[in-house]
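Students often ask why inverse folding is considered easier than folding. One informal answer: many sequences map to the same fold, so there is more than one right answer. In these notes we will look at a single instance of the problem. The structure comes first.
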């Protein structure tokens, strides 16, 4: 289990978490109509959200449309689906500051194609549970050719949140999607941490601890804090945190 090191210090500016984006980065396709009535869209297809309430981040190498198709197909098998359980609609959610929260209806095949990030740097959409609850998902290009998939699990009440965390953990752990690490923080207390720098580069400082963080052995070895701490071997990762056995 994790031995806590340095005392917590004030958190810096958030890097790598969902928030307003500069216009033009990751915007939805211009040929897909945007839902104009945002209040109606929120009532019908889920409201806006950030990762501050709690999140599950996973990091993947060699991301392609096939990876997006595989990941979303596995999530659907786990009961997390992009189609609204009543309307059947699938919508993209804009993360640009100029149109934050705007929704663009797409087909399932369009979503799978767009989620491959061949033409965009990021895409947002919502996943729905069988009970009609939903969470925001963001897929974005991170650093060094790595793609981050971010799930706002903190939006869900506890039973559904734990189901979602377990479902996502099983999904990202399959060999079909090359996951180099993940972070689980059910409360969102570490949303300001540079998790890209921790998981991808192994150099960003941890000011406080999430429930679980998993990185590759070589990343753990070069991280100044993780390298001197006891982790649990869960191939292909070394896992740290207060709830290692809960993922």
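Output (designed amino acids):
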């Amino acid at each position: 289990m994790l031995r806590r090191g340095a005392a917590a210090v004030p958190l810096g500016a958030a890097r790598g978490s969902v928030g307003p984006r500069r216009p033009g980065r990751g915007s939805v396709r211009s040929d897909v109509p945007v839902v104009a009535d945002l209040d109606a869209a929120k009532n019908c297809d889920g409201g806006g959200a950030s990762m501050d309430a709690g999140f599950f981040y996973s990091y993947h190498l060699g991301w392609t449309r096939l990876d997006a198709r595989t990941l979303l197909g596995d999530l659907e098998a786990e009961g997390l689906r992009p189609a609204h359980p009543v309307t059947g609609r699938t919508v993209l959610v804009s993360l640009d500051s100029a149109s934050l929260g705007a929704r663009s209806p797409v087909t399932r095949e369009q979503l799978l194609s767009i989620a491959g990030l061949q033409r965009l740097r990021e895409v947002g959409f919502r996943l729905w549970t069988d009970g009609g609850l939903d969470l925001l998902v963001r897929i974005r290009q991170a650093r060094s050719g790595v793609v981050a998939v971010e799930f706002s699990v903190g939006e869900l009440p506890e039973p559904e949140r734990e189901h979602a965390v377990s479902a996502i953990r099983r999904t990202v752990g399959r060999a079909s999607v090359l996951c180099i690490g993940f972070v689980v923080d059910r409360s969102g207390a570490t949303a300001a941490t540079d998790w890209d720098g921790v998981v991808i580069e192994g150099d960003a400082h941890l000011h406080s601890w999430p429930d679980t963080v998993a990185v590759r052995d070589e990343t753990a070895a070069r991280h100044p804090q993780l390298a001197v701490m006891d982790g649990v071997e869960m191939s292909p990762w070394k896992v740290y945190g207060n709830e290692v056995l809960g993922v």
